[in-house]
Each structure stands twice: as C-alpha cells, then as structure tokens.
Amino acid sequence: MAREQSAAERDDPGHRHPQRPMRALLASTAGRTLTAVAAALLIATVVAMVALWPSKDKTEPSQALGGKTVAAEVQSVALTPCGPAGQRCRELTATISEGPGKGDIAVLTLGPQEATQSVDPGATIRVSTDAQAPAGSAKYGFVDIDRRTPLILLVIAFAIIGVVVARRQGFFAVIGLLCSVALITTFLVPAILAGESPVLVSVVAGMAVMFITLGLTYGLSAQSLAAATGIGICLLLATLLGSLALDSTQLDGRGGEYAQVLSQANVAGISLQGIVLAGMVIGALGVLTDTAVTQASAVMAVRRSNPTLGVRELYHEGFTVGRDHLAATIHTLVMAYVGTLLPLLLVLEAADVGISDALNGQLLAEPLVATIIGSVALMASVPLTTALTAVLAVRVPAEALAGGHEHAH
Fold it and tell me: pTM of this prediction?
C-alpha cells in the first residue's frame, strides 16, 4: 500500500540529505516523544549509577571465603589411606611458584579419590594461603587447577572470530561485551555487596548495559530509540513479574549452596530473594537486547527495500520475522537453563525423584520461574519494539537509511 509523503519528508532538509536521518525523525511528534523517553531513561540511569556507585570503604573482603590464591606446580601425586572403609585420598606435593612463599613445598590432601578431580604431575594449580596458620598445621590449601591460560586463549579466539565474521559490527560487539563485563564487576557486584538493593542495582546496571550495547551498535538512530524504549519497558515488566512470581512461589533464595556461602561473608542484611530476582533481570536483559535489536534491524531493512509501506504494513512484515525469532529464542533460553542444570537432573533421576517433586524443589523452581519470566518479557518485547520501530521508520526517508547498521550477534 502506497503512503503519501509526509510534510516532514517534503520540508525537512533530512529528506534531501541522507546523512541526517535524525533531523527528519525529530521533525515528527513520535520521534520527539521517543527521543525524550530514551533521554529520560539515560539520565535516570546515569544519576542512579552515581548514587549507587559503591565506595571502597563500604565493604571489606571476607576472610571466610578464602581470598586470593597463588600458583603452584605439582611435583607428585599419591593415593594415601583416609577415612572409613579403606578409602584412598589424593595427596599432592607441589612447589609454590609465586608470591612471598615462592619455593615452598606444600603437601595438599584433596579428599577421597572418587570425589576429587584428577591432577597430574607437572600441572599448575591454585592454592590458598593462610599466613596466620599455627606451627605444624597446613599453611596452603588446594583450590583448583589453574585454567587461566586456556580460558584467556578461548576469549581471544572468540573475539577474533567475532571480528572476522561480523567485521565492524563484530568489533563493536566485542567492545560492548567487554564494557558490560566491566560494568558488572565494578558496579553491580560491589554495589550489592555494599548493601544496596539487588533489584534496583540490577535494573540500573541492565539499563546501562543496554545503552552501551545500542550506542555501539546503532549510535543515535531510529533503531536505537525504538530498541531502548522497548527494552526499558520490558526490563521493568520482567522485574515486576519476577517479584510477583517469587512471592507467590515463596522462593527466597535460601535453598542453594550460595546462600550458605554468602551467610559466611561480610554481607549482613543482603536480600537473598533480591539476588535471585536480580539474576532474573540480568538474564532477561540478554535475550531482550538480542530480540529488540534484531526486530529494529528487520523493520528498517523492510523499510529500505520497500519505501512505500506504511506503519501497519511495516509492523506486519517485521512481526512475521519476529515470530520465528521469538520461538527460536525461547527454545534457546530453555535449553540454556537445562544445560546448566543437567548434573542436578541426573542426580534427581538416579534418586528416582518424581518430576513434580523435582520441580517443587527450590533448586529447579528458581530457574523454571526465571525461564518463564524471561520468556514472557521476550514475548512482550517483539510486538512492542516492532511497533515502535515501524512508527519511527516511516518518518525517516528511505534513502537516509541506506547506510544503516545491521544487527550483529
């Protein structure tokens, strides 16, 4: 269906100059409204981050959780008798290879052979240190195998492949990911440990990650405005629904092993239920960003290929793509949770625990609720982002979108 050229398109210089699509967009009421909404969200996010940013003196590292580790090289491995019924434990002899104790010989007992990981001579391991250990007691304790080098190589390979496949967009995707990780480690986690509301901190961090991602992907454009508004609304929806779901199912976060660990740390007063909800919000953010960016790109691609389509036709074409992507993404979300819970599922099956009893347990109920909340927010984001992008797309001349960015995973 053909659409008459709008006054903004006829009169605005943005219609004659493709390099200025935002001028044409801001000439419309819808464009100005969404720009104001996105700007308000951005300002609120920045102000909240400044107010919630943790100071270094708010928390002290918990000595109960082990602290830093040092590297050691395994010299020999032996099996020694231990425990009842003739159990045999792994005993490692290792040389400390860094830190004040460099050169020390440490004898480390791991535990029963059947329940501990295999370690070969020559392997590099991480050990904890206790400088205040009394004479005659163990000064070092085994923590884990040192996997830092292969993990770093995997990250580098991932970044290189992303840049090679997606080129410019891949490069910006990697930069955005690094910024997001930095934000989580320097703001979200310390702020929660400092006693701030986990839910509030996670929403603010999620908004900040969203703006970083969209800014690197689109810059200031119709896509970024629509995606930012859609993600922001759906993120708040996920927070509200998650809170209601946790209250109705009486999930308080106290059933997992991490609750016991946090109870030993210097985090008095922290809301364990809030941490569960914060995890849901951050988990939902990933799929929301993916879907919103994809939908914005799809609608803009349709607009470029057929400039005569109006809002309704653009929405229909974009939503057709969105339905397929939605089904695949929900399936991916469910499989991701199933994959992380596979060892637990095997244990429950081996113990002959019924499916209803298994789902009733907090260890499975929490990820189940998280999956449902994330999926509901996802289903809301597709029509919302598609509609917002369609409304904006018809207000930008098609030729101004010729060099538009494409979505990159």
Answer: 0.75
